[in-house]
Design brief:
By secondary structure, the chain is of the alpha+beta class. The protein is 37% helix and 11% strand. It is built from 16 helices and 12 strands. The strands form 3 sheets. A 5-stranded antiparallel beta sheet has the order 5-6-3-8-9, with no helix packed on it. It has a 4-stranded antiparallel beta sheet with strand order 1-2-7-4, with no helix packed on it. A hairpin with a 2-residue loop joins strand 5 and strand 6. The protein is globular, with a radius of gyration of 25 Å.
């Protein structure tokens, strides 16, 4: 039973199980799967007494051959007593689920009749409480026509739901998200826990995660008043830091960066909770022999932007981020190769169209963070070498040119190439790009809402920092796009927000019931709403005809993703500024 430390305790699921032998089971144990000679069980509990690491002794009524517990410790004391240990099991008062496999040779299934957890009786269930139902902690504020502040708050709930690794004590998305993927990086001898699951799946794709971090940071920097007015600055910083802490772990040497954890094909064959993953999760890296310029330079941009976010808040951390950003940009510039040539598993999911725009984008963010003219020179060199002043038709995880136009117009105002290119891009989007019948700009069938939000972000940025002659037009256009996402089409595209929002997003975690119920095909196939509301998530969006269905199986139009919410979050902050 390899894979991650799939261990997390849930409290007081006081179910009484009866085995084949007729023995009464421990009330905090439930069977997940069973077969002749073996079963997989969940131990569900919550402790109110602080402790460091799990140390639980399980007593069976009949002999067992072996017990497997992820990558954690198993000690066979004798054939009816087994000790399970896990050094990552540290939270107090949190839900946890310990999932383990039992193999036996006899004809009768051995029942677990006693559990001693860190010297606490954890079998009868009498000392445990039930889980508090997850409700939306983002209170309405009364803003009209839409509650942009509540929507901004909810967007950070979505990022909390996408967290991988050991969850913090202030995690708000409970009880259906717990620690997961605690073994990430074990195959390469590094701690690669943390970061974000990419979308409705459980792979950690470093490239789009880095883009998400850059854009989230950008919104925190340039629409800071909107964040402050909504009371969301600290949540925004926490969302950024969850990614940047992971990037620091992933940068294991000067010319080495782990850019993916999890095999996309294996992962996508599994429909279930990340807490229950059993498949291998290999780690993939770039280095001097196998470089990846997009990945290195975009991660550099993310760290440079985040260093600005933390300036004056945590200067030591800010400086650490900037030091690594310098190393990664130099790596990406010196050893040039498209990153999917080195991390081939990413090719089927996030294939880059070229690294020239990341060289430009990363250089501009490093110039903004450092003020060093050499980075502005690097940006200009990339602009000329890759002919980056033409053919920008979108702004997304792959194509950064339009974002670089905006950033460059601020940082290099005497060079009109950036401002001219930005104005032409926004003119194209507003006048020549296709639209749905409802008025949503349509730049790509995959995640059309994401593209609308991304360009709305640039339009609002230009309204605040660009040519003021166009400010009113850009503001009105972008606000209309946002309102279409929030409900002007007749329904909301944001889970848990507004009128008739999506209830069946293509998202594994929220589609699964709380254990001991299993997920698998049920979570995908059942026709009702997802058991858990994925508050704040922006779903993919309609086709060019404005057609959209709330279909869990439609990953083109109804999946969610971290990058979908990044610029959308900044748009909300910008509109909050405008309305205050």
């Amino acid at each position: 039973m390899g894979g991650e430390g799939v261990l997390k305790p849930l409290l007081g699921l006081l179910l009484l199980l009866t085995g084949v032998s007729g023995q009464e089971w421990c009330a905090t144990i439930t069977i997940d799967m069973e077969w002749e000679g073996g079963y997989i069980a969940n131990f569900s509990s919550q402790t109110l007494i602080p402790f460091e690491g799990l140390d639980a002794i399980f007593t069976f009524d009949l002999p067992v051959d072996s017990v497997e517990y992820g990558q954690n410790g198993v000690e066979m004391i004798d054939d009816t007593h087994v000790r399970l240990t896990d050094i990552f099991f540290t939270e107090t008062g949190e839900w946890k689920l310990a999932r383990f496999q039992v193999d036996y040779s006899g004809d009768t299934q051995p029942a677990i009749i006693d559990v001693d957890m860190n010297s606490q009786e954890a079998c009868d269930g009498l000392s445990w409480t039930t889980a508090t139902p997850y409700t939306n902690p983002c209170e309405p504020t009364g803003m009209a026509p839409y509650d942009y502040s509540q929507a901004l708050c909810m967007s950070f709930l979505f990022y909390e739901a996408e967290r991988s690794g050991a969850l913090p004590a202030d995690q708000r998305v409970t009880p259906w998200r717990w620690d997961s993927a605690l073994g990430d990086g074990a195959d390469v001898g590094h701690d690669l826990t943390g970061g974000y699951y990419d979308a409705g799946d459980h792979v950690k794709f470093g490239f789009p995660m880095a883009v998400t971090t850059t854009v989230l940071s950008w919104g925190l920097i340039d629409f800071s008043q909107g964040y402050e007015q909504a009371g969301q600055t600290e949540y925004g910083r926490a969302a950024v830091k969850w990614a940047t802490d992971y990037f620091l772990k992933a940068h294991t040497a000067e010319y080495e960066l782990y850019g993916q954890v999890g095999n996309g094909s294996l992962d996508h064959e599994f429909w279930g909770r990340p807490e229950d993953m059993l498949m291998e999760r290999p780690a993939f890296k770039i280095d001097r022999e196998n470089p990846g310029s997009e990945l290195a330079c975009e991660t550099a941009a993310a760290l440079a932007a985040a260093s600005i976010v933390f300036q004056g808040v945590d200067n030591t951390y800010s400086a650490e981020l900037l030091d690594v950003a310098r190393e990664l940009y130099a790596f990406g510039d010196e050893y040039r190769l498209e990153y999917q040539e080195s991390i081939s598993d990413a090719m089927d999911f996030y294939t880059s169209s070229g690294y020239g725009d990341e060289l430009l984008w990363g250089a501009l963010w490093l110039y903004r963070a450092t003020g060093e003219a050499s980075y502005l020179t690097k940006a200009q060199e990339a602009w000329g070498e890759f002919d980056l002043g033409h053919y920008a038709y979108s702004f997304d995880w792959d194509k950064k040119k339009a974002g670089a136009y905006a950033l460059g117009s601020m940082l290099d105002p005497n060079n009109t190439q950036y401002e001219d290119a930005l104005k032409e891009f926004l003119r194209f989007v507003q006048e020549d790009a296709p639209y749905t019948p409802e008025g949503l700009v349509f730049l790509d069938i995959w995640g059309s809402n994401r593209h609308s939000a991304n360009v709305a972000f640039l339009a609002l940025w230009a309204a605040k920092y660009g040519d003021q002659a166009d400010a009113a037009t850009n503001t009105a256009w972008a606000t209309k796009q946002l309102n279409l996402l929030l409900g002007d089409t007749g329904h909301s595209f944001v889970v848990g927000f507004g009128v008739d929002p999506p209830q069946r997003p293509h998202h594994r975690s929220s589609s699964c019931p709380i254990p001991p119920d299993t997920c698998n095909d049920w979570g995908f196939d059942q026709e009702g709403p997802n058991p858990h509301v994925l508050y704040g998530a922006l779903v993919g969006g309609p086709d060019e005809n404005g057609v959209w269905e709330d279909d869990r199986g439609d990953y083109v139009h109804n999946e969610v993703a971290c990058d979908y919410n990044a610029a959308y979050t900044g748009v909300l902050a910008a509109v909050i500024e405008i309305n205050n």
